[in-house]
Amino acid sequence: MFAYLVRRILAVIPVMAVVVTVVFLLIHLIPGDPVSVMLGPDATPTQIEATRRSLGLDRPIHSQLLGFYGRVLRGDLGQSYFLDRPVVTAIVERAEPTLMLMACALLVAVVIGVPSGIVAAAHRGSAWDRVLMLGSLLGVCIPGFWLSLNFIYLFAVRLGWLPAAGYASVLTDPMSAVRYMVLPAFSLGFNQSALIARISRSCMLEALQQDYVRTARAKGLPNRAVTYVHAFRNALVPVVTVIGVTTAVLIGGAVVTEIVFNIPGLGRLVISAILRRDYPVVQGVVLVTAATYVLINLIVDVLYAFIDPRIRYD
Amino acid sequence: MACRAYGLRLLTVFAMAAVLVVGAPPADAQKKGGVLRVGNLGEPPALDAHWTTASITETLTNHIYEGLYSLDAGNKPIPMLAESHTVSKDGLTYTFKLRQGVKFHNGKEMSSEDVVASLNRWGKQSNYGKSLFAQVAELRAVDKYTVEMKLKEKSAIVLISLAVPNNFGAIYPKEIAEKFPPETKVTEYVGTGPYKLVEWKPDQYIRMVRFDDYKSRSEKPNGYGGGKTAWLDEIRWVPVPEVATRVAQVETGELDFADDLNLDAYDRLKASTGARPIISKPYYWLVAVFNKKEGLMTNEKLRQAWQAAIDIEPIMKNVAGGRAEFYRMDNSLAPVEITAWHTKLAGLPWNEHNRDKAKRLLQEAGYKKEPIRFMTTQEYKWMYDFALLSKQQLEDAGFNIDLQVVDWATLVKRRNNSKEYDVFTTGMGAFYDPTHHIYLTNSWPGWTSDESILKLQAELARETDPKKRMALWEQQTRQFYEKVPVIRYGDLFGLRAARNTVKGFNEATERIRFYNVWLEK
Q1: Which residues contact B415 (CB under 8 A, 6 or more apart)?
Q2: Does the distance separating the beta carbons of A277 and B409 come in below 8 Å?
Q3: In the beta sheet, which residues pair with residue B374?
């Protein structure tokens, strides 16, 4: 067990080394220059050169990369060109909105997705089933940004029920935080709920055909108890896996949602950083996101080993 | 909106109480108080006016800082921090009297040493500063309120250079101007303007509050200058990168003002009960800039062929979303709004859409359908649209255009490298003096190095008689259409929107300013 753990943890090191290198090269090798963006459209080449020197961008790329390795090892992600603060500070500031958005969207996805899947499966072939599955088909097909813009138009501009965009921290102003979060959480969560609904339905259908369900029915248990107690609990395992996958997908979707709803999260940070070629910020955010993925994978692997001894291989 | 903080309600209560005490104001009377929330498209790269030409920096810094001069409603220089100036008989010495009792946001009184330190810094970094300081022999403080500028040669651009609002000669306290070398952006923001910066949270907001000790000029507001009153308690600049969201937020009242909107929002805003559209003029004239350092477009005939081939009106109409309100057909290099330099010359080879002439010029140029690399971006929809339409028209006339669509950051990088392109798209904003037209210089991408053009530019910089300058400028305009350093398309206008509660906004200036603006709530 111990050897397995050590092996898994050591395997993380080359993965992170590759991530650090690829991230650095990707952003530096695409054309574009932070200095031209910073100095504005009318800047002259001489001015641009002077500022490039002061930022260290005139050094050869391999020497910049070596410097980057050294700083990352010391836990220093550098200083943003635009934001006048260390990258680490910028990331910490932006983490809360993104985490909140993802948590709320996940909640929406699960609360809509799981019950609709179960209801559809329990009443297979009924009008309910058709309506819910048509709804989930739409959910899969509709692009997130289109849904977001239409939500804004309907609920904010036309009806005036909710603010169109913005963010309030749940720590300082919980009431506003909820009002700001409703539309983004629904736009982001709705797409994912569709996937969850379809998986829930098929898992549920499979579970409903199992022998123990027939036995339960034969025992004379009410239909409700058979569906929601016996079948549902057994159908839940793959659904939970899908919810896990959904969380990862949400990180990507959150970028678009943050832009449309003007939420100052990590997604917006990285997009604006890419557009203005704020290299340290792009590198920092991608690195932290990748590290989070790797860490979650590590935890899952370790958990598997605890749950299922066969996975330890030794 | 119910989502608004209690603070605002409290403020309203106070404001109402104040009204009760002082008596009801007459309709449309200015009112102190309130927070104006302005949505713009992004973050400024710096709040250092000397450092960047980015227009968002211009807009923000003009609320915090002031220069010695400013522009009036006709875009001519008028004094701002300067009281007056005199010029010696030989035209080589300018003596500026400063206004007394003007305070910086840190409480210090502005004096000549601040002016000298700031302008010296500006003269090393800003485009306008550098072109002026190329003519300056010495800048020195004579006494606390007098600054003297000695010139190497007679100059026509002293006042206008000190007055341009972009990349402008903002006066900082001496300590700050000297602490930050020109190539490093200032990160301590202390000016003499009607608003002072209190908080900058990137991607969330920039907050400016009224500077209570602001000393206004006694004149009426005039263009960018004149008297300035900070009626608002606070201006909150909110970056909202998604343009559709900016429109929605000004409709719902979450924003009081939104800048840089897509033209297709015009109808929606016109129909809105709470907000109104504002057309901003001049915005840009669309331009295709030729690489004249190397490659195909060094051939003057080829450039003339391009100029002869294009039919500008349908291009402009398309770019403006089919609306006549948003474009203007004009061949003057300075827009109508710059009254001093707008030209009305007949017989220029502009918008000829003469395909035969184009074909003849192509033949004379010895052009053999080599691909011409035309660089544009989709980040600014109007650039992409006019590039695409130009490509079609040009290919009909016999050109072979290789349209390269890249992101804006890539475009501004590549355009500095003469090996990487033949033509690129951009827009030309308002230039307040003939010598400020960057595409007529050798230092800006595209590299106009034609000797006769540069010679006229140099003459324009030296000649001080307004009438002679105008004659030179007309000559330069004719020369422009003959040498074709760039292609001038039509004028495109911008769209912004304000809530109906926003009063006193000057719609005539190109860039937004919120001094003298108040909220009617």
Answers
A1: B289, B375, B421, B424, B445, B446
A2: yes
A3: B403, B423
pLDDT for residue B10 is more than 70: no
What one-letter code names the amino acid at A191?
N
pLDDT at A310 over 70: no
Measure the CA dihedral B104/B108/B114/B115, to 10°.
Answer: 50
Which of A29, A37, A39, A149 to mutate to test binding with chain B, by most B CBs within 10 Å of its CB? A39
B181-197, pLDDT tens digit by residue?
988 889 999 999 999 99
Burial bucket for residue A271 (CB in 10 Å: 0-12, 13-18, 19+) = middle
Query: ipTM score of the complex?
Result: 0.74
Handedness of CA B291, B292, B295, B299 (dihedral sign): positive
Helix, coil or strand: residue A313: coil
* Interface with chain A: mutation pick from B59, B205, B242, highest number of A CBs within 10 Å: B242
Collect all residues with Cβ–Cβ distance below 8 Å to B45 and sequence separation of at least 6: A37, A38, A39, A40, A82, A276, B52, B54, B57, B185
The answer to whether the CB of B406 falls within 8 A of the CB of A31 is yes
Mean pLDDT computed over A92-121:
88
- Conformation bin of residue A202: beta by default, left when phi > 0, alpha when psi is -120 to 50: alpha
Q: In angstroms, rounded to a whole number, what is the distance separating the alpha carbons of residues A164 and A156?
A: 5
ω before B282 within 30° of 0 (cis)?
Answer: yes
Does B319 have pLDDT greater than 60? yes
User: Residue A259's pLDDT is what?
Assistant: 87
Cβ atoms of B415 and B438 within 8 Å: the answer is: no
Please check whether residue B75 touches A, CB under 8 A.
Answer: no
What are the CA-CA distances from residue B162 to residues A108, B63, B159 (Å)? 57, 17, 5
Q: pLDDT over 70 for what percent of chain B?
A: 95
Q: Is the pLDDT of residue B367 over 50?
A: yes
pTM: 0.82
The type of residue at B40 is N
Place of tokens 């303007």: B193
Side-chain half-sphere CA neighbours of A300 within 13 A: 9
pLDDT tier for residue A312 given thresholds of 50, 70 and 90: low
Lowest pLDDT segment from A69-73, B36-40, B147-151: A69-73
Rounded Cα gap, residues B185 and B172, in angstroms? 13
pLDDT at position A304: 66
Q: Taking each helix axis from N to C terminus, what angle separates A144-151 and A232-260, rounded to the nearest 10 degrees? A: 70
Residue B368: count of CB within 10 angstroms of its CB = 7
Element (H, E) at A126: none
Contacts of B408 in chain A (CB under 8 A): 37, 275
Using the predicted structure, report yes or no on whether residue B481 has a pLDDT greater than 90: yes
Element (H, E) at B230: none
Nearest by Cα to B62 from B510, B521, B518, B520: B510
C-alpha distances in angstroms, A17 versus A65, A87, A283, B163?
12, 19, 13, 53
**Residue type at position B139:** L
- The C-alpha atoms of residue B250 and residue B248 are separated, in whole angstroms, by 6
Q: Kindly state the average pLDDT of the residues B254-268.
A: 92
Q: Which residues partner with B195 through β-bridges?
A: B210
Query: Which tokens sit at B157?
Result: 């651009």
Residue A14, chain B, CB below 8 Å: the answer is no
Report yes or no: B340 and B75 within 8 Å, Cβ to Cβ: yes
Contact A82 B45 (CB under 8 A): yes
| Identity of the residue numbered B432 | Y
The C-alpha atoms of residue B510 and residue B73 are separated, in whole angstroms, by: 10
